[in-house]
Each structure stands twice: as structure tokens, then as C-alpha cells.
Amino acid sequence: MVNNVESGADSPESGAAMASARWFVLLLGIIAILFGVLFFVYPIPTLTVLATVLGVYWLANGIVVLISLSRDRTGWGWKMLVGILGILAGVIVLIYPLYSAVLIPTIYAIIIGVEGLIIGAVYLVQGFSGEGWGTTILGIISIIFGLILIAHPFIAALALVLLLAVLAVAGGIAAVILALRMPG
What is the per-residue pLDDT across 140-155, written as a single tens digit (0 to 9) for each? Predict the structure, then answer.
């Protein structure tokens, strides 16, 4: 010890940091549980609020990307495209928040469905060219789920919301338990 300064795991400073980390983890867990319950009870209004937040983010990100062009011109074409699309998407989401709350998850469901079809086709080709039956079965399952997502994207979007609710509640409970087990 030089200059009689204590540091390390047993110092008072580390205990204070652990206590603040404990409360932060507890707070995040409680917020996650609340969001999960809101998604279960009010899926469309909660999704509308989240879509609005996403619209504000896209709008702000588009503006920041365009402003950054004044300082850094590398990749200016892509930055210009991202900035303009971000501003347009943000404005559209903010003007039509209810439509966006339904449309954004539906588009995600369609994209995931198409991805499932592509991955399934790749697995089928790999399975029939010698990778084994497991790969072939995974390919068939991926294609089936991809077709379901594409055929019923709104139901898949609602299922996505309920899945997010389950994950938020489970993650929140895990965070609360972790916070209660943390020292401090």
C-alpha cells in the first residue's frame, strides 16, 4: 500500500458500486416485468408506444447521419440514403403510429418467413447432398414455419408481441432474482 490508499474488492468504494449496480439491475428487472405485463394486457397500445419511440429514433438518427456528412464525407452516398430513409420512416411512423404498430411487426414476420424459406431450402439441398437426415428435417421445418409466417403475417406479428411479453417477464424475473442475490 502506497500512501495508505485502500483499493480492491474489499474496499468501501467497491461496496458502494456493488450496491448501486444491485439497485440498477433490480430497477431494470422491474421495468422489464412491467413492459411484459403491458404487452400481455394491452398489446396494440403498448406496441403503438414502442413504434412511436422507434419513429423518434429513426427520425433523430436520420438527422444526425445527414449532419455528420458536414464533417465526414466518406461513404457519403450511403450516409445520404440512410439519413433520408431514416427521416422518411420516422415521419411516417410518427404520423401513423397505429398503422405502424401493426405494420412494423407484420413486415418483420414476413421477412422472417422469407428467411425461413431460404434457410429451409439451403438445409434441404445440404441434406440431400449428404449432410444427413437431421439437416433435411430442419429444412422441412424451416420451410413449414416460413410458409406459416408468410401466409398469416398478422397472426405471426401478434405472436411476436406475445413472445416479447414472455421474454420480458422472464428476463425481468431473472434480473430481480439476480439483484436480490447480489452482495451489498
Answer: 999 999 999 899 888 8
Provide the domain count of the chain.
1
84 Cβ neighbours under 8 A, 6+ residues apart: 62, 66
Which pLDDT tens digit goes with each residue over 18-76?
667 889 999 999 999 999 999 899 888 888 888 899 999 999 999 999 999 989 888 88
Q: Quick check: helix, strand or coil at residue 135?
A: helix
> How far from each other are the two terminal CA atoms of the chain, in whole angstroms?
25
How many CB atoms are closer than 10 A to CB 12? 8
Is 21 within a domain?
yes
Which residues form the domain of 36?
Answer: 14-181
Q: Are 105 and 157 in contact (CB under 8 A)?
A: yes
Type of residue found at 61: N
Q: Is residue 1 part of a domain?
A: no
Q: What residue type is assigned to position 26 of the chain? A: L
The answer to whether the predicted template modeling score (pTM) of the entire model surpasses 0.90 is no
